[in-house]
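Hi all, posting the design record for the shared folder.

TITLE: backbone redesign
STEP: 1 of 1
STRUCTURE INPUT:
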């Protein structure tokens, strides 16, 4: 399931109090999507890590009561909070597949029965889990069958260049990084499990590259440490190409005569970069230049511009462009 579709599904499932387990490769955004869905519905997010927990974290601590004549398991910490909360709450069990079998067994009873030795979980609480799979070398040895069947559904998160690009634009990552991923979509997620201490390209590690760029760091060794040697070298070469492109300001000054690149890599770069510059005031110039690009790059650029600044829809230039290109943004 694509990220944007999964987000919308989780919004519905949280509202319906249904239990969902999300699985997928490391670093593709599972935790961020759960957090985003919880935020969208106004629910508190209680983040728990079963992989570093003990069974007592989910069944309570033994405690003597009634003058020492009886003993009960009493909830504490996050578990106590889940019993007492009166507001919508997502209990997010992250990396649950790494948990020891004894911890998984404790969760099995908690998730289904929704009680801890007579103390009930609040009806406001919904359980959501996330895990890698056994093939990802992420410490996942499996999940006991009774715990798997406690989830109302198990969904696999796919990687989507379009969804990641939209997320990157929303979060202010550099235009050249978004353009590169669109040019080399296979490198967005090229996860290769290894025992070596080195990273593979994935959405999480590319976000790290983007944040290094925003911090003023442009260093091949640093990028190699984030996404691996091959991907880092390709991106470094792409940045040299990006720097040699016509000035975006020069394009806006003379959109009719400014040069139009021929190579796809340069077209991705110009379309994405110009979208960052688009405003209601200069959109007529932007659309004039975009109209000289191959149609797919024209539409790509306008989609980005619209995502970055929805106010452009109020400009006459956007109305004219949308009328001429009816249906292409849907």
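Okay, here is what came back for every position:
SEQUENCE:
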């Amino acid at each position: 399931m694509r990220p944007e579709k999964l987000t919308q599904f989780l919004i519905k499932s949280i509202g319906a109090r249904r239990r969902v387990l999300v699985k997928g490769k490391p670093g593709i955004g599972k935790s961020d999507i759960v957090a985003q869905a919880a935020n969208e519905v106004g629910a508190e997010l209680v983040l728990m890590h079963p992989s570093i927990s003990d069974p007592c974290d989910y069944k309570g601590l033994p405690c003597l009561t009634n003058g020492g004549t009886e003993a009960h398991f009493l909830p504490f910490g996050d578990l106590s909070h889940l019993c007492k909360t009166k507001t919508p709450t997502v209990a997010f069990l992250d990396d649950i597949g790494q948990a020891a079998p004894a911890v998984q067994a404790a969760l099995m009873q908690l998730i289904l029965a929704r009680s801890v030795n007579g103390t009930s979980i609040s009806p406001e609480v919904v359980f959501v889990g996330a895990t890698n799979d056994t093939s990802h070398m992420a410490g996942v040895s499996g999940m006991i069958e009774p715990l798997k069947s406690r989830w109302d559904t198990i969904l696999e998160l796919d990687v989507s260049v379009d969804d990641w690009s939209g997320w990157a634009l929303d979060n202010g990552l550099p235009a050249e990084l978004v353009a590169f991923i669109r040019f080399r979509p296979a490198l967005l997620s090229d996860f290769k499990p290894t025992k070596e201490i080195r990273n593979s390209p994935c959405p999480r590690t590319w976000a790290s590259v983007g944040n290094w760029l925003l911090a003023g760091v442009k260093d091949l060794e640093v990028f190699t440490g984030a996404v691996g040697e091959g991907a880092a070298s390709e991106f470094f070469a792409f940045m040299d190409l990006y720097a040699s492109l016509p000035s975006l300001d020069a394009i806006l000054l003379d959109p009719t005569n400014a040069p139009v690149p021929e190579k796809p890599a340069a077209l991705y770069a110009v379309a994405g970069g110009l979208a960052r510059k688009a405003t209601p005031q200069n959109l007529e110039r932007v659309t004039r230049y975009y109209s000289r690009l191959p149609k797919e790059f024209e539409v790509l650029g306008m989609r980005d511009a619209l995502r970055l600044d929805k106010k452009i829809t109020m400009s006459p230039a956007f109305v004219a462009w949308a009328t001429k290109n009816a249906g292409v943004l849907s």
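COMMENT: The chain has two domains: 3-156, 161-324.
Let me know if anyone wants the other runs.
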